[in-house]
Specification:
- The complex is a heterodimer of chains A (504) and B (100).
- Chain A has a domain at 281-504.
- In chain A, 78% of the residues lie in helices and 2% in strands.
- Chain A contains 21 helices and two strands.
- Chain A starts with a helix and ends in a 5-residue tail after the last helix.
- The relative contact order of chain A is 0.10.
- By secondary structure, chain B is mostly helical.
- Chain B has one domain (4-87): Helix Hairpins (Orthogonal Bundle), CATH 1.10.287.3510.
- In chain B, 82% of the residues lie in helices and 0% in strands.
- Chain B has four helices and no strands.
- The chains are: A mainly alpha (504), B mainly alpha (100).
Chain lengths: 504, 100
């Protein structure tokens, strides 16, 4: 089918142009910005589902920009992994946009609305571009588009968000420089920037110092962008002070796509053979991840601001994904854990940030110690928070349990028993910091102020409750899905695409 | 012809200066300058390697990279101006300690 072959490029370019259309339309009518953006993303979601179906039925889609063949032109390649990520991306974006309508009306002044939605749309275009591209330099360009818009989106909140965003600009730029240095070196070693070509040419030069340096630099660059533990320090501030819908979007989508770059590089460009070639490299990755898992949780326990706590929890959860990557040369379950956790964490963290955002929206409460009686006043939001928190802790049959289970299976399979202990310990630490919140919300007795009648009558708008409820329901439904083998054709396709390259 | 090593040495020293600057400078504008040094060292690297390769991809990409660096500086300075309007200083340490 001719159209299906062009789907990835249609999604990316139209998303990009939508960003500018929103800006222009926003000058004429401020209200139109939101609706154009939402409508466009719903269309892209439908297209990305078509892409996934086509990829699963026919095989990877390859598109040559301008008809130039790969070694010269830029190639877009979509295999099962990218298509899966595209579907997650647009699904979460739609939900968060629906939520953001009322929230943004309150948090951001009206004259900034068109710019805000235009930036969101451009960021989504950038993220979609990262997922579909098959060219390392093109990936850098999309990476910068996604990052630049993220800087601006965080700064929209004003005040302390500006300082946080400036920190992010500096750190993000350093990360980008590390990435492009690495890309430059592999380009020097192989003479190509196309991922599929590079995969074929790299094994000859595994021993080259240039390639080793390139791998190290790219990994460091992506670690900064995806806030993996030792390089996460820009992230908690940025998440805390950004507008709530932006924190939700960046936490659940932006980081996932950043770590997707690492996944694509490790599995498709350098391949697992490269990791196996340097004995001990996989264990180094695992231990960095393990340090991140524990440190993120321990920092989260200390926090009083609920958004900051969730930010540190994200640091810890990205350790899970990195641990899966590190374990995958030793066990196929590692990749299953990675794939599962990308979806599960996007859903769980999206839900948690939306719920935390609605507490701030409705009652202006961000301090965990002031959460008494929230379950009475905002039953739906607290319920969603509690379900997602339980899922983060990893109680069956939630989604978080499934990804932990896969990672524990991976470490058992690889005979790396310390990581089993670390994963279980991390579950315990998650329990500590999430239980603190749930305890405050549900079990601490709270005297209702007697003459606060008009406070209670303001209900949370349905457009904010519904996305949270959908995500909370997904936390449980996905858990059951993962545990009953239903998505296995998808996983098998991803496994085979990634380990055979899929980009050949 | 100038040997490749010299270009790489130039890129490496610019990279080191830039990285050192980002760690030590606390003035917002000096930080942006260090970031520019870093990005330009990457560009020199790309162009130098491309000149010694049979294709010109690297030079084309250096142009893209310059455009991105400009966008980066644009966003960075915009945030910096907003910070200055709010706090009346661009010394990041002072902004850090100001609670409100």
């Amino acid at each position: 089918m001719l159209l299906a072959e062009q789907l990835p490029v249609i999604i990316v370019t139209v998303a990009m142009f939508c960003g500018f259309t929103i800006l222009l339309a926003g000058y004429l009518n401020k209200k139109s910005a939101f609706w154009i953006s939402l409508l466009a993303n719903i269309v892209f979601f439908a297209l990305s589902i078509l892409t996934l179906r086509h990829v699963l039925a026919v095989g990877p889609i390859k598109y040559w920009q301008g008809g130039w063949r790969p070694p010269w032109g830029i190639e877009y390649v979509v295999d099962a992994m990218n298509a899966y990520l595209l579907v997650i991306l647009f699904f979460i974006v739609i939900l968060i946009e629906i939520y953001s309508k009322r929230n943004v009306e309150k948090e951001i002044e009206a004259r900034k609305h068109p710019t805000f939605y235009a930036l969101i749309q451009l960021m989504v275009a950038g993220l979609a571009g990262i997922t579909v591209t098959g060219d390392l330099f093109n990936m850098f360009v999309w990476l910068e588009i996604a990052s630049l818009t993220a800087y601006a989106l965080i700064a929209v909140a004003g005040g302390r968000a500006l300082r946080a965003s400036y920190n992010y600009v500096i750190m993000g730029s350093i990360g980008a420089v590390f990435y492009i240095f690495g890309v430059g070196w592999i380009y020097a070693a192989t003479g190509t920037l196309n991922m599929a070509d590079m995969r074929i040419l790299l094994p000859v030069v595994y021993d080259s110092r240039l390639v080793q340096m390139a791998f190290a630099f790219i990994v460091v660059g992506i670690m900064i962008k995806a806030y993996i533990f030792p390089l996460h320090f820009w992230q908690p501030d940025a998440y805390t002070y950004a507008p709530s819908s932006v924190s939700a979007m960046i936490a659940s989508i932006h980081g996932k796509v950043m770590i997707y770059i690492l996944i694509r590089l490790v599995y498709s460009v350098f391949t697992l053979d490269f990791i196996r070639y340097y004995i001990g490299l996989d264990l180094i990755i695992c231990w960095v991840a393990a340090a991140g898992i524990l440190a993120g949780s321990v920092f989260a326990i200390k926090q009083r601001n609920v958004k900051r706590m969730l930010a540190y929890s994200s640091v810890s959860q990205f350790g899970y994904i990195l641990l899966g990557i590190g374990l995958s040369p030793l066990s196929p379950w590692g990749l299953v854990g990675v794939v599962a956790h990308i979806l599960n964490h996007a859903v769980m963290k999206g839900c948690l940030f939306l719920a935390a955002g609605s507490f701030i929206h409705q009652e202006g409460k961000w301090d965990i110690r002031s959460f008494e009686g929230l379950s009475k006043r905002m039953p739906w939001a607290s319920g969603a928070f509690a379900i997602a928190a339980i899922s983060m802790i990893g109680i069956p049959p939630t989604a978080g349990f499934a990804s932990k289970l896969f990672l524990i299976l991976a470490s058992l399979d690889a005979a790396q028993y310390p990581f089993v202990v670390i994963l279980l310990l991390s579950g315990l630490l998650n329990l500590v910091y999430f239980w603190r919140v749930i305890d405050r919300m549900y079990f601490v007795r709270h005297e209702e102020p007697t003459e606060g009648g008009n406070e209670g009558t303001r209900r949370l708008p349905i457009s904010m409750t519904a996305p949270m409820m959908v995500l909370a329901a997904l936390c449980i439904i996905l858990g059951i899905f993962w545990l009953t083998d239903i998505p296995m054709p998808l996983i098998n396709q991803i496994l085979s695409d990634l380990s055979t390259g899929g980009r050949l | 012809m100038i040997p490749l090593e010299l270009y790489i040495l130039l890129a490496a020293s610019m990279f080191t200066i830039g990285l050192y600057g980002t760690f030590t400078q606390r003035n917002g504008i000096k930080l942006m300058m260090c970031i520019e040094l870093l990005l330009n060292s990457a560009n020199i690297n790309l162009v130098a390697f491309s000149a010694y390769q049979p294709n010109v991809n690297g030079q084309v990409f250096a142009l893209f990279s310059i455009a991105l660096a400009a966008a980066e500086a644009g966003v960075g300075f915009a945030i910096l101006i907003a910070l200055y309007r709010l706090y009346g200083t661009i010394d990041l340490d002072k902004i850090n300690t100001m609670r409100w």
